[in-house]
Design brief:
This protein has 132 residues and is an alpha+beta fold. Helix content is 43%, strand content 12%. The protein contains three helices and three strands, in the order αααβββ.
Length: 132
């Protein structure tokens, strides 16, 4: 009889990362960098579009306000028969250099008008309300 106890191989537990885990992390970070870095590196186009969108929002509000005032009292407010008229309302919301594309607006009708930023790289639409 063999009185020797059977030998067992105990593998030591390691707490280090395996090579495949490190490769997966590097690949994931690379994918994130490919999509995130271009957006972070050049925020100017997004800022320009946001500014143009803000101007368009202000023009929509001014047009609606003018329409309500003139509808209530025809001697107040200003007639709007073209998208460009919205930029000339007494509130004077159109910043220097921004342009509005001309488009006729019928009385009591709404039109989708376009505003362009000073360097012509971004546009946004606003609602012009026609009133005579």
């Amino acid at each position: 009889m063999n009185n020797h106890s059977p030998t067992t191989n105990h593998q030591s537990l390691t707490t280090a990362f395996t090579l495949i885990e490190l490769i997966i992390v590097i690949v994931l970070l690379s994918i994130i960098a490919v999509f995130a870095l271009p957006r972070l590196m050049d925020p100017v186009p997004k800022a320009r579009q946001s500014a143009t969108d803000a101007v368009a929002g202000a023009l929509t509000a001014a047009s609606a306000n003018n329409y309500a005032i003139r509808k209530a009292n025809a001697t107040k407010g200003q007639a709007v028969t073209n998208c460009t008229d919205v930029g000339n309302l007494p509130t004077n919301l159109l910043p220097t250099g921004y342009t509005i594309t001309a488009l006729a607006i019928a009385n009591n009708a709404a039109a989708t008008c376009t505003v362009t930023n000073p360097d012509g790289t971004t546009t946004a639409t606003f609602v012009g309300l026609g009133i005579t």
